[in-house]
Specification:
The structure holds 2 protein chains of 2 kinds. By secondary structure, chain A is mainly α. Chain A is 55% helix and 5% strand. The chains are: A mainly alpha, B mainly alpha. Chains A and B meet through helix 21 of A and helix 5 and helix 6 of B.
C-alpha cells in the first residue's frame, strides 16, 4: 500500500466536497415543486440528459460562450476548467495504466509522480509524460492570465472585474497555488530522479543543479495537497461553488425548469451558479455610460448568496436585459431581480458557519398592507363591442404624434376599431410590477382584463412595448395581443395599407421590452424597410441598447438617464440617418432630448408614407361654384 | 386675536408642532431631487390617475413637506406609478421614487399600513 501523510488534506477535502455535493443536490431537489420534480425525472431518462452532457462539455469545460464574447477571458476560463478536467482524466488513466494496481484511490492519480518517481523515463511512458506536461502548461498559461486579470483587468479585454470578499480571496489564493505547487513538486521529484518531460523535466534538472531537489520536493507535495484540500473545503462558501452547481443547473434547465416569478430551489441554483466572471458588468450601460459599478447582476447574486440587504441593488437597474442575454451561464437575471424587488428591504442576516454551508432557501415575505383595494375608484365603464381594440397606453398619450399616427393608419386601413383609452385609461400594471408591487398591479390587470373581455375583441393592439409585455405575459386574455409594429406589418401583408417608399435613411432602435423582453425583432425592421432605407447599427437586435428612460429603474436621477440616452443616441446615429426610428413612446421621448437627429416612432413614419386617398371623382352636373358667403351683419 | 375679532379657520391652520416631517426627511435623504420640486403642478396635469380622481401629486408633495401625513396616507395608493410625471417634470424630480419611498416609510408602522 502506497501512502504518505501528506495526502490527508487532499483526501479530507475531496471526500468532503463529494458528500457535500450529494447532500446539497438532494436538498435542492426536495425544494423543487412537484411539477418541477417530475420535469427533472423525465429529463433524466429523456433526451434532455444527452443535451445536458453536451452543454456541460461545451459550456462548463470549453466555455464556448465566453470564448465567443471575449477570447482572452474565455481562454482563461477554458484553460483552468478544461485543462484541470484533462489533468484529472489523464491522470486517472495514467495511474490506472501504469500504476501498481487498477482502480486506485483518487490520491494515487493526483500525486502519481510522488509515488512513481521513476515513471516516464523512456518509450510510451515518456510520450505520456510529455502529454501530461502539456496539459499542465496549458493550465498554467490560463492561470497567468487570471493573475494578470486580477491586477489589471484591461489586459484580458475587461473593463471591470468583480470585487472579492476575504473568503473569496483565500479560496482564490489556494486555487492559484494548486498548479504552481504541482509544477514545482513534480519538477523537484523529476529533478531528483532524472525523469519528467519538457516542462517538469527541464525545470527539475535546472533546479536540481543548485538545490537539494529530493529534500525540497516533499514540502511542495504537502503544499500541493494542502492547497487542494483548502480549496475544496472553502468551495461551498465562495463563488467557486459555481463549478458543481452549474452542472446541476444545466441539467435542470434542459429538463424545462424556468425561474418564473417564484423564489425557490431553481432560483437558488442560479444564484450559486454565478462565477462572477464579470461579463454582466461589461454589458451594463449603467457601468459604461454612467459609471455605476456596484449594482450589476454579479453583485446582486453575490448579495443574495450572502443574505445581504440587496434592496438598493435590486432597484437600481434599467431592467433592459442586456446582461441576461450576455450571461455565459444562462442565468435568468431579470426574473431573479424582479423576485428580489418584491422582497423589499430585508435585514442583513448574520449566519453561522453551519448556515453558510447549508443556507436555507430564501423565501419572499409579502409586504404588509391593510388589505384595502388601491384602485377601487376606477370607473365602471360600459365597454363598446368591437373586434379590434386599440390601447395606446400612458406613455403614448404623452407623445400624441404616435397616437394620431396610429389613428390615421387605422382609419386608412378601413378596419373598425375601438380606441380603448381614448380619454386616458388605467395603467397596464407593469410599472407597478417593476416597482415590486404585484398585488396592486393585479388590481389594474383585473380592471383592464374585464374591459377587454366584455368588449368581445379578438385582437388587442398596443403602441407601448411596456404594455405589450404585460398584456402578453401577465394577463389572462382570450385575444391576440399585437404590438403596433406587428399590426402594421399584418396590414401591409393583407394589402390593407398602401404605402409610398420614402427615400429616407433610418436606423432602428429596438426597445428593451419589445426586443429582449418579448422577442420581437424582425417585424419592426420589416415594416421600416418597406417604407424607408433601413441602415444597420452596431447595436441591433439582442445587442440593442437601452434608451435610459426605463421605468425599471426608480433610483437613478435625470443626469444619469441623460448620459445613457446621449451615449445610446450617439451610437445609433453614427451613420447619420435622417430619422432615428423606434417603436416605444418612452424611447422616443428620451431620445428626442438627447440627439439632434429626428426621432420618430415607426407608426409616424408609416403614417407619413400612406398613399393619400384618391380625390373623389366629381360627378357631372354637380356645381363647383362656391356657395354665397354668409352675411354676418 | 379674538380681541380683534379675527379667528383662524380650522382648515387654514397649519400646526407645525403637531406635524410629523420625518417622512419628508426620510424621502429627501434618499431621493435628493425631492427638494427640487417647485410645486408647478405639471405632474398633476399629466397624471393618469388625475383623469379619474382628484388625486394630485403636487398636493401630495406639499402635504408631505408640511408633515400632514394623514392625507398622504389616504391618497398615496391611488398612484399607478406609470411614470408620466417624471417625463414632464421640469425640475427632474424622480417622482416614482418619491412615491415608493413615501409608501415604504408609511408602511413601516403597522398603524399606518397603506
Amino acid at each position: 500500500m502506497q501512502f504518505d501523510p501528506f495526502v490527508i488534506p487532499f483526501n479530507i477535502g475531496l471526500y468532503f466536497i463529494l458528500l457535500y455535493a450529494v447532500a446539497r443536490s438532494v436538498m435542492w431537489f426536495n425544494e423543487l415543486s412537484r411539477s418541477n420534480k417530475l420535469r427533472l425525472q423525465r429529463g433524466f431518462f429523456g433526451r434532455a440528459f444527452g443535451h445536458s452532457l453536451k452543454e456541460i462539455f461545451l459550456e462548463s469545460l470549453i466555455h464556448r460562450k465566453i470564448l465567443k464574447a471575449n477570447f482572452k477571458l474565455g481562454f482563461m476560463h477554458m484553460s483552468l476548467a478544461f485543462g484541470w478536467f484533462l489533468l484529472i482524466l489523464f491522470g486517472t488513466i495514467e495511474a490506472d495504466f501504469f500504476g501498481a494496481i487498477h482502480l486506485n484511490a483518487p490520491y494515487k492519480a493526483i500525486f502519481f509522480k510522488f509515488f512513481n518517481p521513476e515513471h516516464g523515463r523512456s518509450g510510451f511512458e515518456a510520450v505520456y509524460s510529455f502529454w501530461m506536461d502539456l496539459i499542465l502548461a496549458f493550465i498554467l498559461s490560463g492561470l497567468l492570465l487570471a493573475i494578470i486579470k486580477r491586477f489589471s483587468s484591461k489586459v484580458v479585454g475587461m473593463k471591470k472585474t468583480t470585487k472579492l470578499r476575504i473568503l473569496d480571496k483565500v479560496a482564490l489564493t489556494s486555487l492559484w497555488l494548486i498548479f504552481p505547487s504541482r509544477l514545482i513538486a513534480e519538477s523537484f521529484t523529476s529533478g531528483a530522479y532524472g525523469t519528467g518531460s519538457f516542462l517538469t523535466g527541464s525545470l527539475g534538472s535546472m533546479l536540481a543543479s543548485f538545490l537539494p531537489a529530493s529534500e525540497l520536493a516533499y514540502p511542495f507535495w504537502w503544499l500541493y495537497s494542502l492547497s487542494l484540500g483548502v480549496f475544496f473545503i472553502l468551495l461551498p462558501l465562495t463563488r467557486y461553488m459555481h463549478i458543481p452547481t452549474e452542472l446541476f443547473l444545466i441539467f435542470a434547465r434542459n429538463s424545462g425548469i424556468r425561474t418564473g416569478d417564484q423564489p425557490g430551489a431553481y432560483k437558488e441554483m442560479q444564484i450559486y451558479s454565478c462565477s462572477s466572471c464579470g461579463i454582466c458588468i461589461d454589458a451594463c450601460q449603467l457601468n459604461f455610460s454612467a459609471g455605476i459599478t456596484n449594482i450589476q447582476a454579479a453583485y446582486l447574486l453575490k448579495g443574495l448568496r450572502n443574505h445581504e440587504n440587496v434592496y438598493d441593488i435590486a432597484y437600481n437597474c434599467l431592467m433592459c436585459g442586456r446582461c441576461d442575454q450576455k450571461c455565459p451561464v444562462g442565468i435568468e437575471l431579470t426574473p431573479i431581480r424582479m423576485i428580489s424587488r418584491r422582497a423589499g428591504e430585508t435585514i442583513q442576516r448574520k449566519t453561522n458557519i453551519w448556515e453558510k454551508y447549508f443556507s436555507d432557501i430564501q423565501h419572499v415575505a409579502p409586504i404588509k398592507t391593510n388589505g384595502d383595494l388601491s384602485y377601487s375608484w376606477l370607473p365602471k365603464e360600459k365597454p363598446v363591442k368591437t373586434e379590434l381594440l386599440y390601447f395606446a397606453g400612458c406613455m403614448t398619450h404623452l407623445t400624441p404624434a404616435i397616437k394620431n399616427s396610429m389613428v390615421k393608419i387605422l382609419e386608412a386601413s378601413g378596419i373598425k376599431y375601438n380606441f380603448m383609452d381614448a380619454d386616458g385609461g388605467a395603467c397596464c400594471g407593469r410599472p407597478l410590477m417593476l416597482a415590486g408591487q404585484d398585488k396592486e398591479a393585479r388590481e389594474l390587470i383585473n380592471f383592464n382584463s374585464e374591459l377587454i373581455w366584455k368588449s368581445g375583441a379578438k385582437t388587442l393592439v398596443t403602441s407601448c412595448p411596456i404594455c405589450y409585455k404585460v398584456f402578453s405575459e401577465s394577463y389572462y386574455l382570450n385575444v391576440e395581443v399585437l404590438h403596433h409594429t406587428q399590426f402594421i406589418k399584418m396590414l401591409i401583408e393583407q394589402d390593407k395599407l398602401k404605402l409610398n417608399f420614402t427615400r429616407r435613411k433610418v436606423t432602428y432602435h429596438t426597445p428593451c421590452d419589445l426586443g429582449r423582453g418579448s422577442g420581437i425583432y424582425d417585424e419592426p425592421k420589416e415594416v421600416l424597410s418597406h417604407v424607408a432605407l433601413l441602415q444597420k447599427t452596431a447595436f441591433d437586435d439582442e445587442n440593442s441598447l437601452c434608451c435610459g428612460g426605463s421605468l425599471g429603474n426608480i433610483k437613478i436621477n435625470n443626469q444619469v438617464r441623460n448620459s445613457i440616452a446621449r451615449d445610446a443616441a450617439a451610437e445609433l446615429t453614427q451613420c447619420n440617418p435622417d430619422i432615428l426610428a423606434t417603436s416605444c413612446p418612452l424611447c422616443k421621448k428620451t431620445f428626442a432630448a438627447a440627439t439632434d437627429t429626428r426621432v420618430a416612432d415607426i407608426a409616424e413614419i408609416v403614417a407619413e408614407a400612406i398613399v393619400s386617398p384618391p380625390v373623389k371623382e366629381i360627378k357631372p352636373g354637380l356645381s363647383l361654384r362656391r356657395r354665397k358667403p354668409v352675411k354676418i351683419l | 386675536m379674538e380681541k380683534f375679532g379675527f379667528a383662524i379657520l380650522k382648515e387654514r391652520h397649519i400646526d407645525y408642532d403637531a406635524n410629523d416631517k420625518s417622512i419628508a426627511e426620510y424621502i429627501a435623504d434618499r431621493e435628493p431631487t425631492f427638494r427640487l420640486c417647485i410645486e408647478c403642478g405639471c405632474c398633476s396635469a399629466t397624471c393618469t390617475t388625475g383623469t379619474f380622481t382628484r388625486f394630485s401629486l403636487r398636493e401630495l408633495q406639499i402635504y408631505l413637506k408640511r408633515g400632514e401625513n394623514e392625507y398622504v396616507r389616504e391618497n398615496i395608493r391611488k398612484c399607478m406609478l406609470c411614470g408620466k410625471c417624471i417625463l414632464v417634470c421640469p425640475r427632474g424630480v424622480n417622482t416614482r421614487n418619491v412615491i415608493t419611498l413615501a409608501k415604504q416609510e408609511l408602511q413601516k408602522t403597522e398603524k399606518n399600513a397603506v
